[in-house]
Amino acid sequence: MTRKASVVIEKDEHGYYAWCPELKGCQSQATSLEEAIQNIREAIELYLETLSEEERAQAFSQEIKTTSIEVHA
């Protein structure tokens, strides 16, 4: 079964930091964006192996949306 997970990736002076809001504590980092995506995918898959089917269903029942808004700065 495949599922879609939300992933947030932030870039700073050290590289990229990625985390999955549905799975508390599931995070990774890398020096490139491509590596960060690969690493967080692996982290999510390994994290999901530790959950029961019920826990997986509950985690992915959350609706997480991201957007950007304009602000005065």
Biggest β-sheet description:
3 strands, antiparallel
Portion in beta strands? 15-25%
Mean pLDDT: 93
Number of domains: 1
Computed Rg: 14 Å
Overall CATH class: Alpha Beta
Describe the structure.
The chain has helices at residues 33-49, 53-59, and strands spanning 8-12, 15-19, 27-30. With 73 residues, the protein is α+β, with helices and mostly antiparallel strands. The mean pLDDT is 93. The relative contact order is 0.19. It is flat, with a radius of gyration of 14 Å. The chain has a single domain, classed as Double Stranded RNA Binding Domain (2-Layer Sandwich), CATH 3.30.160. Strand 1 and strand 2 (15-19) form a beta hairpin. The chain has a three-stranded antiparallel sheet, with helices on one face. It is built from two helices and three strands. Helices cover 33% and strands 19% of the residues.
